[in-house]
Amino acid sequence: MIDERAQALAQVVRGGLVESVHRGHLVALDGDGVPVLRRGDPAVTVFARSALKPVQAVAMLRAGLDLDGELLALACSSHSGEPLHVDGVRRILAGAGRTEDDLANTAGYPLGEDVGATGRADGFGPSSLAQNCSGKHAAMIATCVAAGWPVAGYRDPGHPLQEAVREVVAELTGDGAEHVTVDGCGAPLFSCTLTGLAHAFARLALAAPGTPERRVAAAMAAHPQWVGGSAATSPR
Questions:
Q1: What's the predicted TM-score (pTM) here?
Q2: Which of 18, 27, 70, 182 could bond to 42 as cystine, CB 3.0-4.6 Å?
Q3: Distance of CA 97 to CAs 77, 118, 206, Å?
Q4: Where does the source fall among the domains of life (predicted)?
Q5: Secondary structure letter of residue 39 according to DSSP
């Protein structure tokens, strides 16, 4: 169904002709949280999927997760499945006294084309370690250990971990996180508005040093290759 509120945001031009037009919703805020650019309906309710990972990481830090630097960036990532990412996931798990057997995310191939092709050529199938959300899931497990919550069932929306995540999503976005579904990795996903998501990102970027919000923002800014992959720091 076409959302009549959506506006044209981008177009693909081929051979001098507009081949396709992509419609959607957009909002940009200034430092005071005032919209400076709007397209479509920024109040539309969405499932922000991986864009919520930094907010989820804030919730985990507040619950006792002890990560910073590259491993905290990995907890926020949709990584490409390179060896450094797989090793980092194992480091997060080992720090909590856990192993990859505790991961409950769906198995997947690495997102990075080179590493994915190499793995297939060597006969490796999809795995939870290589799947792009494994950093988040490892951090969820580590949070459960730190908080004294059961690791079993950590993906359940009623688990204390996910209840804590939902509260922080609602707080930082200013929305009610009223809807819940399942993300592609198997973890719960809570709704927000586009404007609420923008407010959440602003709160991370403008937070005081040492707060969970600023720690997340600083880790991602300092370690982009851990958030995405080597291409994030390579010249194009």
A1: 0.90
A2: 27
A3: 22, 30, 34
A4: Bacteria
A5: E
